[in-house]
Amino acid sequence: MASKRDQRRLGRNAMAFVLAGGRGSRLKELTDPRAKPAVYFGGKSRIIDFALSNAMNSGIRRISVATQYKAHSLIRHLQRGWNFFREERNESFDILPASQRVAEDKWYVGTADAVTQNMDIVESYAPDYIVILAGDHVYKMDYEVMLEEHVLSGADVTVGCIDVPRMEAVAFGVMHVDENDRIIDFIEKPADPPSIPGQPDLALASMGIYVFETSLLFDLLRRDAEDPDSAHDFGKDIIPYLVKHGKAVAHRFTNSCVRSTSESSAYWRDVGTVEAFWEANIDLTDFVPELDLYDRSWPIWTYGEIVPPAKFVHDEDGRRGSATSSLVSGACIISGSRIDKSLLFTGVHAHSFSEVEHGVVLPYVTINRGARLRKVVIDRGVVIPPGLIVGEDPEEDARRFRRTDNGICLITQPMIDRLEL
Q: Is 329 known to sit in a ligand binding site?
């Protein structure tokens, strides 16, 4: 049986290259001040922490992160929370903003181009393999398992894939595979997705995770850079080219997903809409959530602010600081307020006689007296006025805030500032 050291050898010779430049426009005003990978999740983390933690826990000690859209919040988080890598231990952590390194008028024009523009930096570390990662999904995965499958199969590229109900795959890039999981066709958002052999009700959707041998990837990127008709994108150009001219293999997420004893299924979420973001956070308040953030064997690393513990005060009828079926982070003060089935990030202050139900409340929000909030996402730093009621009058909610079809209200400070109270 292979030793733990042997099992981690491929990871130590690999680099994780995280693509974290996307805006995530479907999150609406949540991504006005920040890129999607920098959006908060789970009470303490940012979305990008999941891909980075997976790499760290998989034994990968060289990581690069390409940023572009409104990157300050993301870069600041990475500098504060991911600055523990040491070159003397053969570790590195590079933040690679789109900085016109190639030409004065050229930003990153596609996911492949983001790597192409930084090939010299990657090459200086001489990794044997590169694991390309999307920085905007929530999941736990051991990339070492995918690396091992890549090497054993002799593939030119291995593509991470999830099983999805076949007709739900219309929103994904779908891998058409043979009985050996070799990819024979790649179809972007097909109207009639091909099924998995032997599983007619399921399709294989791309996770945006790719493993390459570094030298081969660089050859592909140089060829792609010279093609004036290319979008310089992995999903649109690089992967389809290898499907036709090389060997592309699908890796099943179920083979490498990390699950604690309490997690019954493989968990992967694209929290790319306000509803999906709200639902994934609220799901964490379940008695046994589908995603176990308490699993110490696979920690989600992040920047941990030094703050005091959460505090609950007042114990009077109608004015009792309480939280039920909720996650309450450090520095929160629940002062005579009732919190139910909600997730509160760091530093939330809920004043007396206020109520929050099914709320996702981002850091340093103030909820003033008498406010009643149901099915809400409240952006960082918002000050909720006294007596504000949300979640009881759909027409009024839609007039004042961003309201989804299922009644989730996104509240930002500019929306509050426009209120006529």
A: no
